[in-house]
């Protein structure tokens, strides 16, 4: 239901930056040729998947977070002042910057929302468990269910976090959030929901 697409962006003067702040592995999948010019900057990644994508692209990962990009930034507070280049998608969360941390943002990709495939629509006619990884995905999925006349009351949602669960709205059979914002925790929640038909 979504497709990541590259967008054109300009690479700023690297001497001004102490590192890269990255909130999605899509940065390294769709960031384009400009990434090659940034490879000497250390990466502060939101989580394991993003850190792995950075390493595969030849970057050195200095920080690997576990609870969102805000916690990564907070963890850098108190160290020497840092000016970071944030590589992001077109839709990204605002950050509350601690003292000593400044950020310049470049949008390097966008997520295009696509119509729900007929195979998924047909599979959800009798209900099912759906994983939601972002608030944008939750909103789009809910809109597509309504557009196609799918019964929210038959569908269970497993969300990566409470903000994502809230974005899906109401009327679902059940909505539950993962215990911590990691893909592994979300998959564990989904498996439990499928096994218990809960």
From TrEMBL:
Pfam families the record matches: HEM4
GO MF annotations in UniProt: uroporphyrinogen-III synthase activity
GO biological process, one term: tetrapyrrole biosynthetic process
Superkingdom, natural source: Bacteria
Record-annotated Tetrapyrrole biosynthesis uroporphyrinogen III synthase domain positions: 10-187
Name used for this protein in its record: Uroporphyrinogen-III synthase
Species whose genome carries this gene: Parapontixanthobacter aurantiacus
């Amino acid at each position: 239901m979504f497709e990541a697409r590259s967008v054109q962006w300009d690479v700023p003067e690297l001497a001004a930056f102490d590192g890269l702040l990255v909130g999605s592995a899509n940065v390294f999948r769709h960031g384009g040729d400009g990434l090659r010019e940034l490879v000497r900057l250390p990466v502060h990644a939101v989580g394991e998947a993003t850190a792995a994508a950075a390493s595969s692209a030849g970057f050195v990962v200095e920080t690997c977070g576990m609870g969102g990009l805000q916690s990564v930034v907070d963890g850098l507070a108190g160290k020497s002042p840092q000016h970071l280049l944030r590589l992001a998608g077109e839709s990204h969360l605002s950050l509350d910057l601690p003292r000593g941390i400044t950020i310049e943002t470049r949008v390097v990709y966008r997520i295009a929302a696509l119509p729900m495939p007929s195979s998924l629509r047909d599979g959800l006619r009798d209900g099912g468990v759906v994983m939601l990884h972002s608030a944008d995905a939750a909103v789009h999925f809910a809109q597509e269910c309504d557009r196609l006349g799918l019964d929210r009351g038959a569908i269970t949602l497993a969300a990566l976090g409470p903000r994502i669960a809230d974005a899906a709205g109401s009327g679902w059979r059940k909505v539950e959030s993962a215990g911590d914002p990691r893909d592994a925790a979300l998959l564990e929640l989904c498996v439990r929901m499928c096994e218990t038909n809960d």
